[in-house]
Design brief:
Elements (H helix, E strand, L loop, with lengths): L11 H4 L1 H4 L8 E3 L9 E4 L3 E6 L4 E6 L8 H16 L5 E6 L19 H19 L4 E6 L3 E2 L1 H7 L3 E5 L6 E2 L11 H11 L1 H10 L5 H7 L4 E3 L4 H13 L3 H21 L1 H12 L2 H18 L1
Parallel strand pairs: 4-5, 5-6, 6-8, 7-9, 8-10
Antiparallel strand pairs: 1-2, 2-3, 3-4
Bound molecules: ligand LLH4SW3U.
């Protein structure tokens, strides 16, 4: 499997991705609902459903994990689906959206880093880096159709796309709220934020752990459009058409020119970034606050 980073990254899950997917439908195709014609075959896995439309060259990728928390399995399945579409010259764009009601993506799956050993935390963080690198540098046009809450790691997934359309619902807030959980966004999340909304706005939003409701997200430039919920998908398709109207080679080289330095910074320090992450999250104090936070989330439900 070709990796965005070259040769250094080889988490067990990605070396044996199919082992994780035993019993799932990844690799199998089935007719899309209401489809059946050319290009209407969907494929997917337990946690990622892909609805490809060969005629338009656009695939809709739907996340369908509980709360779309980024578990190791979800990260792995996302990378595999992305790679599959990247390698198929039929496709020029992906619309990324959620199949879970009210949540686009809940960010890091905190159960992957709470009560786990350092080796697991390292494997998990490398998978997170890998997904970000692949999305951020993807040659395809990625449009995020954000149809639910989008905190922290969810916001990073959205920021890795080329364009963001957010549903106009005050509950669907978006931003990097790490500081409020007592954790710190690593430099590459910070860089992605700065590249999108600028230095001063990022400085404020990161320190305050701001989660922006739709109108404010639009104002600060975190999203490109805010539309009624039932128009998110159609607006994402219109945005996609606008981006696909540009010749691929020119758009791809320009994207690379804009993003490469940010990605290279992580590639140069990937191991150190992993070590920082692991030593930080494995501290007793951080483990205690993660535990308390997870407990709060579980109780809130009841
Ligand atoms: C100095 C060196 C520094 C080095 C770097 C160090 C650290 C870097 C780490 C930085 C990166 C952090 C990025 C992150 O993503 S942290 C995660 C942040 N995410 C959140 O805070 C979101 C928490 N979730 C929510 O706010 C809500 O769940 C919601 C997304 C708004 C959805 O609300 P609702 O629809 O009401 O769903 P529930 O709240 O009932 O949740 C359902 C279910 O899902 C569980 N859950 C939710 N989020 C997570 C999660 N992120 N991880 C794990 N599990 C989650 C929740 O507990 C419920 O579970 P049960 O059904 O089992 O009860």
């Amino acid at each position: 499997m070709a990796l965005a980073s070259g040769v250094r990254f080889a988490p067990r899950a990605l070396l044996r991705p199919w082992a994780l997917l035993r019993g799932t439908t990844l690799g199998r195709t089935e007719p899309a609902a209401g489809g059946g014609g050319d290009g209407a075959r969907r494929f997917g896995s337990q946690r990622v459903l892909v609805e490809p439309d060969a005629a338009s060259g656009v695939a809709v990728m739907k996340l369908r994990n509980p709360s779309n928390a980024l578990s190791l399995e979800l990260l792995t399945e996302l990378v595999i689906s992305l790679e599959k579409l990247e390698n198929d010259k039929t496709f020029r764009g992906i619309i990324l959206t959620s199949d879970c009601p009210r949540v686009f993506c809940a960010g890091l799956d905190l159960t992957e880093i709470c009560g786990r050993n350092p080796a697991h935390c390292a494997e998990y963080w490398k998978a997170m880096q890998e997904l970000w690198l692949r999305m951020y540098l993807s040659s395809l046009v990625l449009v995020a159709a954000i149809n639910g809450a989008c905190p922290a790691g969810g916001c990073i997934i959205a920021l890795s796309c080329d364009c963001r359309v957010l549903a106009d619902n005050p509950k669907y807030r978006i931003g990097l709220n790490e500081t409020l959980l007592g954790i710190i966004a690593p430099f590459w999340l910070k860089d992605t934020y700065v590249n999108t909304i600028g230095h001063r706005a990022s400085e404020q939003a990161l320190q305050l752990g701001s989660l922006f409701p739709p109108a404010e997200a639009l104002q600060v430039g975190l999203v490109d459009q805010v539309v009624p919920e039932d128009q998110v998908q159609s607006t994402a398709l219109s945005e996609m058409a606008r981006w696909l109207a540009v010749p691929d080679h020119a758009r791809q080289l320009t994207k690379n020119m804009m993003r490469k330095a940010t990605a290279d910074r992580l590639l140069r320090q990937r191991d150190a970034d992993t070590q920082n992450f692991v030593s930080f999250v494995c501290r007793d104090s951080i483990q205690k606050s993660l535990q308390a936070y997870l407990e709060k989330l579980r109780q809130r439900k009841g």
